[in-house]
Amino acid sequence: MFDHDDKDAISMPRVYGLILTGGSGTRLWPKSREDLPKQFLALAGPRTLLQESLLRMLNVVCPQNLYAVSGESFAPRVEFQAREVAAVSEGFVVCEPMARNTAPAILLGCEALLENGAGEEDLVIVAPSDHLVKDVNAFAAALQQALAAAEEGCLTTLGIVPDRPETGFGYIRRGRPRGSGNGYEVDAFVEKPDFETAQRYVESGEYFWNGGVFVFSLASLYRELRETSPDLSGAVRKGTAALRASFETLPSISFDYAVMEKTHRAAMVPMDAGWSDVGSWDALHDVLPRDERGNCLKGDVLLENGRNCFVDSQDRLTVLADVDDLILVDTPDVIFVTRRGFSQRVRDVARHLKERGRREVHQATDGSEPWGSYKVLCEEGRFRIRRLLVEPGKTLSLCPDLSNGCRWLVIEGKGVFSGGGSERELCEGESFFLPFAPKEELGAVQNPGPGLLELIEIQQGTGGLDRSLPGER
Question: Considering only CA atoms, which of 183, 173, 240 is closest in space to residue 205?
Answer without folding.
Answer: 173
